[in-house]
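Q: Hi! First time doing this. I have a protein sequence and I read that you can turn it into a structure. Is that right? Here it is:
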Amino acid sequence: MALTPLLLSRLQFAFTISYHIIFPSFTIGLAAWLTLLEGLHLATDRAVYRLLFSFWLKIFGVAFGLGVVSGVVMGFEFGTNWSRLSEATGPIQGPLLAYESFTAFALEASFFGVLIYGRARVSRPFYFFSVAMVALGTTLSAFWIMVNNSWMQAPTGYVVQNGLYVPTSWAHIIFSPVVWVRFPHMLLASYLAGAFCVAATGAWYRLRGTHPLEGQAMLKAGLVLAALLIPAQLFLGHLNGDYVHDRQPAKFAAIEARWHDEQPAGEVLIALPDARTATNHFELKIPVIGSLIASMRPDSREVGLADFPRRDWPPVAIPFFAFRIMIGCGLVMMAIAWVGTALEVLGRLERSRLMLWATFLSFPLPFIAILTGWFTAEVGRQPWTVYGLLRTADAVTPALTVPETMASLAMFVCIHFLIFGFGVFYIYRLLERGPDAAPDSSPEAGPNRPLGLGGGQPLSDGAAS
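A: Yes, that's right. Below is the predicted 3D structure, encoded as structure tokens:
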């Protein structure tokens, strides 16, 4: 495959958004968790909730900063690598991103400082209100991004004027039915990421025999929250499949590795798709189930990729495998959450080391599911940037050269690994120290030294032990 500015620009954006999406997803889930903890502390006055809040607030602050930095980078990429996309869709995407700033960023900027520095300066109800506003801000940020992306997936409420996509109805854009299945699905994915990270941390402490009260509270709360959220997430996932089936049939066929029309359609569980020959190798397929999944009827006719010109085919292997990895992660998470909750009801969770290990090792699963779900949506949309309207090849900046794009890609890879490697390591050391080593405030912490909130001691081996 020849290196071109288009290919390198796609790789660069895929790399940066894969890094970025992890941190906002994590912080959205943590913001909801912090709101729950502060609400419980306000209602019960139990010290454990206050301690856990102070502990997770520090982790939230670091992850929040990493998410902001990685998001700013992507904003520049729209101008440097995708100027034609920015020009053509600016009348729609520009205001949507501005709405994010006016609502989400305004709330986060207004109340985040209260979270970090204001507990001793405001009343308890107002502090809880501030936590809730930060959580609302993270949610609104996700909402406007999903409105933007959903418009690119299923354009509506626009006209074309002089090559520009101009809005005719913001109501159709913002209240598109596609938005209102994709946004809740992404929101619950973030909540599940938070729930499993909390549960995994609790399981880690129980396995190590440290922080028994806090570990027990995190383990139980995380598993119960996940057990409650997963059924709703599965339902929303089905609704997402419905919109893809109806509005993006080529993507749906690629996800199913369906090359030719079938009636009734089978469901390919696993295979090795071969786009060159339009066949599947080593295929394991269940008859009729494909029609039931796609149309809720056992005899529906489902289209294959052969119904579309080859130039409109998305890459098949990536959405095919990514979708199945996402589903597999979801099923494993459901099993862990439900079995863990059942063991908790029976009073046996703390004694089951197998369950504790399974919970501890589950923390990457929601992030893998989020990434593979995003890969399915974005790679499956190809060759379109705005589905059915603007091809990706026509959206790239025309003046780009291969050396320029390779240099920026290499720079982004190095900087991301450096900055985010240190950020993730810092979060790990905070988790390793645990709640007892994370006091409410440090004399070293202040507006001029925000990282002082990590604690008064340096993150050395001695401080962590």
